Amino acid sequence: MTQLEAARKGLLTPEMEEVARREGLEPEFVRAGVAEGTIVIPRNRRRHGIRTCGIGRGLRTKVNALVGTSDDRDDPEMEARKIETAVSAGADAIMDLSTGGDIDAMRRLSLERAAVPVGTVPIYQAAVEAQKRRGSIVAMTPEVMFAAIEKQAADGVDFMAIHCALNFGVLERLKKTGRVTDIVSRGGAFLTGWMLHNRRENPLYEHFDRVLEILREYDVVLSLGDAIRPGCIADSLDGAQVQGLLVAGELVLRARQKGVQVMVEGPGHVPIHHVETTILVQKRLCHQAPYFVLGTLATDVAPGYDHITAAIGGALAGAAGADFICYVTPAEHLGLPTEEDVRLGVVAARIAAHAADLAKGVRGAWEWDLEMARARARLDVAAVADLALDPAAVRRHLEGKGDGLCRACDVCALRLVADYFGR
How far is the C-alpha of 72 from the C-alpha of 75, rounded, in Å? Predict the structure, then answer.
């Protein structure tokens, strides 16, 4: 029985109870959200001993980090260190997007090292193996695609981004939009090339029930991959994006009917004035399913600083209702991230997520800021460090500064006013 099926029967699972405890909520709130499909709990029935994470309405906005090998950098131990860096920095989940080296071994290493839910994109492995064994990505067979999903689910993967909402109707709409960046999703590009070359419908859409059968068996959360997400500000909210959401909305209902938990992946590059509309349209068309955003990036012109552009957009997206923020590192659009890039990306995304939680009134968010404000007013250096989102960074800045919070000047406003009022 999946989490969704149990919730519909009125049953509280240990995972629902753990999510409720971690969020400071009543277990019944979590159960009802899972039953409605507004909350998902990514936890493969084969995985044990990980930190259970709930994603969705009424819960803390979660943060996802990306790792993975490639042909250019096949160093599993480095990726394992990135996992440890991401989790220690506060990531709620990680995704292994490996496309190089021993993909199976890297995925199993990710599952072993990560104490949080692990996600994957199975079409990556299917495409890479088709290229190695058959000479090209377009030589993939549907059986290879489904075999990749089955193998990764059996290994224990907790959630999968699968590009089921891409079909010929969406591609026809894409041709008419006059996009600047066409398709920037790697999985979307693989499948588009396959469809156009073979003149066949996307097997993941055409045989969607088969995808659901595999995911239901292992209780893997389906993340409907955004195959045609806008890859630049100019393409935001175009017809292809909306057409993809219409298809995704239909698949959300079908997944729920089969007892499969489902969330929906979104953009991407979104100008600030489009953010709220983007979230509201997705929530409406996709029946309030949890929304997993990639950023969002508020501008295209800051390569090297895209963890900042993503934090700006991510805070607004979360405040408007996005539930799961995928981090963006300073290396976005430039290359593979280092361990330090990973840390900076997670911290920036966590700042965005917490800012969103303040706006949404998520339980505990306001209280955290209030405690920090009181500690600063008391000039309580130790408490400020303990309460900080990144305590290590605070302690580094305070080294050698005595008993004060700031040594930028000799006249401290907080201290002067405290002395004046006799505090």
Answer: 9
